Fold these 2 entries.
Entry 1:
Amino acid sequence: MIEIENVHKSFGALKVLKGIDLTVAKGEVVSVIGGSGSGKSTLLTCINGLEPIDSGRILVDGTEVHAKSTDLNKLRRKIGIVFQQFNAFPHLTVLENVTLAPRKVKGMSKSDAEEIAVKHLNHVGLGDKLKVYPSRLSGGQQQRMAIARALAMSPDYMLFDEVTSALDPQLVGEVLDTLKLLADEGMTMICVTHEMGFARDVSNRVAFFDQGVMAEIGPPEQIFGDAKNEATRKFLSSVR
Amino acid sequence: MFDYTFQWRQAIRALPQMLDGALVTMQIAVLSMAIGVTIAVFLAVARNSSSRWLRAPATAWVEVARNTPALFQIYMAHFGLGSFGIYLSPYIALLAGIAFNNAGYLCETFRGALRAIPATQIRAGRSLGMGPAKAFRLIVMPQMFRISFLPTMNQAVWAILMTSLGVTVGMNSDLTGVTQDLNARTFRTFEFFAMAAVIYYLIAKAVMLGARLIAWRMFRY
Ligand SMILES: Nc1ncnc2c1ncn2[C@@H]1O[C@H](COP(=O)(O)OP(=O)(O)OP(=O)(O)O)[C@@H](O)[C@H]1O
Ligand SMILES: [Mg+2]
């Protein structure tokens, strides 16, 4: 379970998160939508401790992310994150990209790591690209590799930050399909997305962020059909 | 108008002697690169540090190394330090001067390579549970290595050619020193220096060719 309690966060004078409360249960898929600069990405990087917070707290399975005593390197093993930029490691093959962390962070043997990596790469449809370098992959393939790379750590949670927005339109589908597959398998996910169709079809709840505040959250039917909040309605009509 | 008769035989006979000199040249170049690379790493760290006391001397080193003639740097190591009572032999002075020069240039090469790697690469590594040192070692260093490999080998060629300046501080065992001695004894200036030039050329070409080959074998991405 991920529990976010009254989290405040600023960059210098700029207040980016202004008291966010959100609890994500095991197996749940929460989509986060909202305008540019509303703090969606920042929230994700706070959840895995890449960014410090000013006040409030975030608990992952009861462990407080920003407590001094928390071993973040260990905690991050169970929180996978995939960014908008694919962040492939260019000097490693697809297989090496995916086995790197299991081997060097978890201390897995090469063959065990490769077994897991191949499984996940097959899963995302890259089973025939094992020995290829990322520079030879399309954007969609690189992004699917990044997903496999995160999955190879066997995380309990996956955070996705607009994983399709750097992709050509014809490549968006293949990545969204991968996310759907994960959701169907019961992965707990927080997906920041601009894909309203995806948010509606795949998520259990949709959260709307507006200028650092979670203005509204609810089941997709309610958010897309009957938003209570004026800003939500305005945002949705602008993206449709 | 052109009554110089070439006498190559003498030069050819001196070839083994010159090749011995070339070995000394290579030795100085290799040592100066090893020292230069090591110091350059520290300089690069110092230049990127937040402490002014580390940054200032490192910046000064880089500025002087890159913006004054290499000849002066070698002179300083020999005669300059000599005026303070620190006497370095021609060999050590030449080595020190070239290493000083190498370190200055390579520092900037390494810093450029570091800058070329987006911060998001480290972020991705950290997200997978790597500590900062591990992320640097596994993700940043291999990429820096590739970016700086050929520029570093260029500097190595430059170091080989710079060794010829040793003759100005009394160095007589390297290729230029040996050639200069032969010249002084025989006055066959053109033949000896032409031979030396060919040897320098072949060494420089061989180093760059080797470097390209290694790069091609090593960097498959
Ligand atoms: N490292 C940083 N330093 C300073 N300001 C930052 C930093 N990261 C984000 N910001 C600022 O914080 C605000 C929120 O950024 P964030 O990336 O969380 O928005 P977002 O909701 O993800 O927007 P988008 O939809 O454009 O990705 C923005 O105004 C942004 O400029
Ligand atoms: Mg964002």
Entry 2:
Amino acid sequence: MEQKTIYHALNIMPELCNGCSHCMKVCPTQAIRVRNGKALMHPDWCIDCGECIRVCPTHAIKIAADDFQRIFDYEYRLLVLPSVFFGQFSNYISLEMINSILKEMGFTAVHVPEESVDFLLETMNHYIEENQRPVISSFCPAVIRLIQVRFPSLVNNVMRLKQPMELTAHHLRKVYSEKHKADMAKIGIFYVTPCAAKIASVKSPVGDYISPIDGVINMDYLYNRVQKESVKKLAENVADLPQERIQLSGKAIKYTLTGGEKDNMWQTGLAVDGLQNVIDILERLENGEIEGVDYLELRTCDESCAGGILTPNNRFFAAERLRRMAKKLPEECWMPKKYTDYLASIVNVGQIEPRSIVRFHPETKEALKMMEKAQEIKESLIGIDCGACGSPSCEALAEDVVCGKATIEACLFQRIKSGKAGSLSMEQAVGIMEEIWGADKFVDK
Amino acid sequence: MEFKFHVEGGDFTSAGTASSQIKKVLKQINIDPIIIKRVVVALYEAEVNIVAHAHHGDIKVKITPQQVYIRLDDEGPGIENVEKAMQKGFSTASSKVREMGFGAGMGLPNIKENADIFTVRSEVGKGTTLEITISTVNNG
Ligand SMILES: Nc1ncnc2c1ncn2[C@@H]1O[C@H](COP(=O)(O)OP(=O)(O)O)[C@@H](O)[C@H]1O
Ligand code: SF4
Ligand code: SF4
Ligand SMILES: [Mg+2]
């Protein structure tokens, strides 16, 4: 079934956007255009990778989050906090301190999503043996969406298993409803996200299931609050911190770093991070050029989640800190069998459908005609991909023209040619420019 | 719509250029992903064969709403025994080519499996011509 409304946490703030077109140039699905001096995003094409946010010089692209106060709608406020969070702090700030600050903020308990990785890794290993290979990890939601949009022929390779954040949320709900006899409606599970993609996977999950997570908190927001409190605590020299531990293991900490899945696979695997590297591997896989690989761990961000768009600190420092931390911990930390049995019953997700982009026309015959036209137009363009037309490349402008979304005169060079031939007046040329870049750009400041 | 490519023998780094380009086009005109995969695999194997076995060659791809037609003409040693070459696992690839990860003898059989119509004409000492037709309408 085609999903009609796809949730994106990304919002381009028109009052901050100056139409510089940086975002348009990096978008892997060409989802952005500049019109009237503002960037516009095509929601059906966006895969929530966050690349546009990284390059925006005016910080005009914001990631929406749930209101923090919502945690108080619940009696049991459970925080699912990815272990990459701990990599953001200096060694002076202990896990115990972070834990106690979070409790003071109102959380009943703090758990890392990766508590469920021992169970999940074993399940994945069996899954690989029984399914079409190479199996592609379902960990990074932006990768799943990239495959749906740009590599539809590979959707059946995507692993149809839930990931640590969902599994741990299910586990916690079970524990709290049984052990603590809590009313289900009173349990609120909040996930701290390192990126826009994970928000999308909570709000519009792919694979026909309902997310067990009740709310999402952005990691940069939580970091600021914890950092501020910890500085205070360090200054006050608070000695009697409750020594309550957050349950962690080596595998749990390493899971969200590059290699965290692959290194635990029985079969041959490959770990790839960084959007361009991921695209390159998927192209090759689709071409049938990849052989002898059973598992592909693909993550959109360079250094995986340590490089997530909402992680505040340097990805290399964070990853290194986490690896050191992992060395001091036991490798595994299994949950009781009773719970892994429960997780086994809910770990699967449904079919992953392609989300094909209709570039030209849904009918092949019509699409082919339009494409031929676009090819012709493209050949008449200068080919320097300057973006001054408000489309990401000459090829994209040619497509936009054929689809009636732009005129050929949007091209600066075409306008000069027409001007030279006398078929376009200065006024007309300015008018076109204003439509793309906004009238305010053509008055003296 | 027609596309043309030139392939140089021995240039393993460029193998896959034509199939990638054609793949992009087929995606943009909403061809069934299963069909796209068949076209890409067949074309890629044929491209690699020119790189691995011939001196150089030309590829022509013609896309219509009903089918993708591919013709590859190369100048090279030709194939002595086409029937044998079509068998799974048969290969005359040099050890150097094998070291590069090619030469498993699955190329021609793979093309045959993915094509709706596949013809091979070859003249020893002169060259080889492949014609591959794949219908774009998925009928199972
Ligand atoms: N274009 C070609 N020119 C000359 N010989 C070829 C060509 N294509 C295939 N062959 C011959 O047919 C054999 C089988 O081809 P193929 O099934 O693709 O296996 P492989 O390329 O792995 O050897 C090759 O080893 C080669 O001897
Ligand atoms: S999040 Fe990624 S896909 Fe979406 S608009 Fe930004 S760059 Fe494009
Ligand atoms: S690598 Fe991690 S942080 Fe980056 S998009 Fe994927 S899930 Fe989000
Ligand atoms: Mg071959």
